Amino acid sequence: MNKELIELRVNGRTHEIAVEPSALLLDMLRQGLGLTGSKRGCDDSSCGACTVLVDGVAMMSCTLLAASCEGQEITTIEGVREHGSLAAIQKAYGDWGGAQCGYCTPGFIMTVKSLLAENPDPSEADVRRALSSNLCRCTGYNQMYEAIRSAIEAERKGLAVAK
After folding, report:
1. Percent of the chain with pLDDT over 90
2. 0.85 cut: is pTM over it?
3. What is the structure's pLDDT at 162?
4. What gap in Å lies between CA 122 and CA 113, rounded to an integer?
């Protein structure tokens, strides 16, 4: 197949990359740019491990064509930070044990970042609804919900996340 040169903005940086028209965003991020935080879990957008933000909206990169993202801002887990350090939700996941093996964690964090950008004070039902697109095979989800509540509360108060 013939490759085409596309320009993608990923984590605030512009990249020119040659991709086949059928190249998936997940593969381009992992192999083309070396951003391996997004994971391949299912290849059919049913697990959420590959979630990235495209113009701030949580999207499954395993079923999204890379070329279709030209001109949009893509944010991966590697691009999530606040003032050069861990974002509140990342710190809370660590503090509350929200990650077991960690494989699905980037997808969950990206989904939560999208939710909080849209609704900075979501109800528990809002959080559960948003996270219904993500699967974790290791945990009972309770630590994740505690981490999310902690991060929301800390951001509301302008404080560092604490357990």
Report:
1. 55
2. yes
3. 44
4. 12
User: What digits encode the pLDDT tens for the residues 8-36?
Assistant: 999 999 999 999 999 999 999 999 999 99
SS3 state at 4: strand
DSSP code at position 102 = S
* Residue 75 resides in a domain: yes
* Domain extent for 123: 88-157
Domain check: are 47 and 106 in the same one?
no
Instruction: Quickly list DSSP for 6-72.
Output: EEEEETTEEEEEEE-TT-BHHHIIIIIT----S--S-SSSSS-TTEEEETTEEEETTSSBGGGGTTS
Q: Do 46 and 135 contact (CB within 8 A), yes or no?
A: yes
Tokens of 113: 């970042």
Neighbours of 2 (CB within 10 A): 6
Token pair for 150 = 């902690």
- pLDDT per residue as tens digits for the range 67-105: 999 999 999 999 997 666 677 888 888 888 888 788 999
Domain shared by 71 and 111, yes or no: no
CATH number (domain holding residue 132): 1.10.150.120
